[in-house]
Amino acid sequence: MTTPGVAVELVELTRVYGTVKALDGLSLRIEPGELVALLGPSGCGKTTALRILAGLDEATSGAVKVDGKDISGVPANKRDMGMVFQAYSLFPHLTVLDNVAFGLKMRRKAKADRLSRAKEMLELVGLSEHSHKYASELSGGQQQRVALARALAIQPRVLLLDEPLSALDAKVRTQLRDQIRRVQLEVGITTLFVTHDQEEALAVADRVGVMNRGRLEQLAAPAELYANPATPFVAEFVGLNNKVAARVSGGTADVLGTVVPTLPGSVASGEGLAMVRPESVTVTADPAGSARVSSVAFLGPTSRVYVTLPDGEVIGAQLTSVAARAFAPGDPVTVGVDADGVLVVPS
What we know:
Blueprint: E1 8-17, E2 20-30, E3 35-39, H1 46-54, E4 61-66, E5 69-70, E6 81-85, H2 96-106, H3 111-124, H4 140-153, E7 158-162, H5 170-187, E8 190-195, H6 198-204, E9 207-212, E10 215-220, H7 222-227, H8 232-237, E11 242-249, E12 252-255, E13 258-261, E14 270-276, E15 281-285, E16 291-298, E17 302-308, E18 314-320, H9 321-324, E19 332-337, E20 343-345
Parallel strand pairs: 3-8, 3-9, 6-7, 7-8
Antiparallel strand pairs: 1-2, 1-4, 4-5, 9-10, 11-12, 11-14, 12-13, 14-20, 15-19, 16-17, 16-19, 17-18
Helix pairs in contact: 2-3, 2-4, 3-4, 4-5
């Protein structure tokens, strides 16, 4: 069932709407069979990039290449791409099976072939037993799986997913996110996934591209992006951060009495603010400690312990809920930093 993946390249794409520059020289290469997630706030250009790749929008300048060939002038219906959007867009008057087979019917495939392919795709997404139902008889998560099966039925060279999970509740979203990744790996299709949800992007992608104001700020594997943000925007947008006073010299920063290497892009010397993840903050009970626990928030398997520093700043530490039980508001503590590196921005 695997589809040989193709490389996708966006080359110096710009898109200008009046005075607004939605894309500002975006270049991105997706390797054959790779899933790249574009992540960023509303208006950062991620959906514009997807629409230009799909042929639904036209770049002001730049090129789109698939398998090494420039397809910038090719109409959307000739680009051989499967698309899944936030709105499921299923035909209410067709059964699930006929919805999945619809693209094949448009391509004039023989009835027996298209029904066979549609059944195969419904089996892939775990909906075989619902093949004769109508969209109105399905849950939102099931409808989105039908939309995924329909997109894959035509055996596209590229799969495009535009916020496909944002209309679903949290539990269904997590389940479907994992299923999309399983199906993508099984089929082996080159995929662009657009989302504003960082957890979603980090969970499914081979690499994540963080966009801001039409530009790609960083493109990296999820763990690399999280541990080593390249810019202050990436550090702020991906994950939670405490901003803690730091003094930088010689490639290291003194943060809460701990000397930590600085990441590329940090302040070279002098005072700054270190971006410290909550899970990198250590909290130790200490009768002589100058910091005080201000509150403890239970989050299930983990808890957030908030500590007020001597200068009045409040920082959060993420601990296991078992460890957090040892702390109560008002407890004197000592805090430190346990990190391989920190990004220090100007204060």
